[in-house]
Amino acid sequence: MSGAEEKKPRTQVKDGDGAGSARSGKKAGDTDATRTGSTAGNQSSASSEKSALSVARVPYGISGFADLGDLYTARVKRAWVQGILLFLSILRNQGVLMSAIALVIGIAFGYKAVLDRLPASFPAAWFIAVIVGFAACRGRVRTFLQEPDLVFLLPAEERMGAYYRRAWRYSAFFQSVQAVVWVGVLVPLFQARAGIGAALLCAVAALLLKGWNLWFSWMEMLLVRRFGASLAVRFVGNALVIYGLITLALWYALAGVALLLAVAWLVRSGRQVRSLPWNEVLDLEQQTLSAYYTVASFFVEVPKLKNRVKRREWIMALVRRIPINQKLPYLYLYIRTFFRYSEYFGIYLRLMVFVGVILYFVSNVWVALVLFLVGLFLMGFQLPNLASERRYSELVRIYPLTDQDKKRGISWLALQLLIAESILLSLLMLISGRLPLQHLAWMPLAGVVFSLYVAFYYLPNRFLEEEKSA
Question: Which intervals of the chain are annotated as region Disordered (predicted)?
Answer without folding.
Answer: 1-46
